[in-house]
Amino acid sequence: MIIAVDGPTASGKGTVAAGLAKHFGLKRLDTGALYRAVGLAVLDAGGDPGDEAAAVAAARALDLAAIDEARIRSSVVGLAASKVAAMSAVRAVLRDTQRAFAADPVGAVMDGRDIGTVICPNAEVKLYVTAALPVRTQRRLNELHARGETISFKELQAQIAERDRRDMERTDSPLRQAQDAHELDTSELSIAAAIEAAVRIVDRRNADMS
Ligand code: C5P
Prior knowledge:
The chain is of the alpha/beta class. The protein has a single domain (2-209), classed as 3-Layer(aba) Sandwich (Rossmann fold). Helices cover 55% and strands 11% of the residues. It is built from 9 helices and 5 strands. It has a 5-stranded parallel beta sheet, with helices on both faces. The longest helix has 19 residues, at 191-209. The radius of gyration is 16 Å and the shape is globular. It binds cytidine-5'-monophosphate (C5P). The site of cytidine-5'-monophosphate has 14 residues, from helix 2, helix 4 and helix 8.
């Protein structure tokens, strides 16, 4: 069973994906981490995330097991990630990485922007996780403050809106809800309630199939 979980930044898709993976005993791939790791690798090499050749080389050299979970979560790296993610050549390299992960016969939970539309269009269950922009901003602000980053609500909200725009307007694999995706708005849901709602959607689909 492949479960595709798509949605914008800080919508709760990562939390929902992790909860589903735990509940159903599946492995999970946070595909945003791949773009973030590519952005970080370019920055670490002193390069510009807008440099396509450097970004493609970093995508080819990417080792999933060596991704630095702590360092990829900064807002600077998030912005670099959204730049490299707009490059078709980078997406082509990472598409292969993601499909190889999805090929495991046991199945997987994969979260990102284009899992249900491009990477795994035949996924058994698709979720599109959303939340209102101010709610998403507050969640990301709490995360960044916990990491010791100082940024104002207003500045962060503008950054997230800019990232949404870039993700939704790019020509290759833009963020959009797949036709057969179930929408899950987490604006007013606790973490437990959001995961519970997602589990119910998957259970309903499984019951329909049996
Ligand atoms: O989900 P997260 O914020 O970690 O993703 C970082 C960036 O990677 C996003 O802004 C988006 O541009 C890009 N991304 C993507 N396709 C995916 C996952 C992430 O373009 N499947």
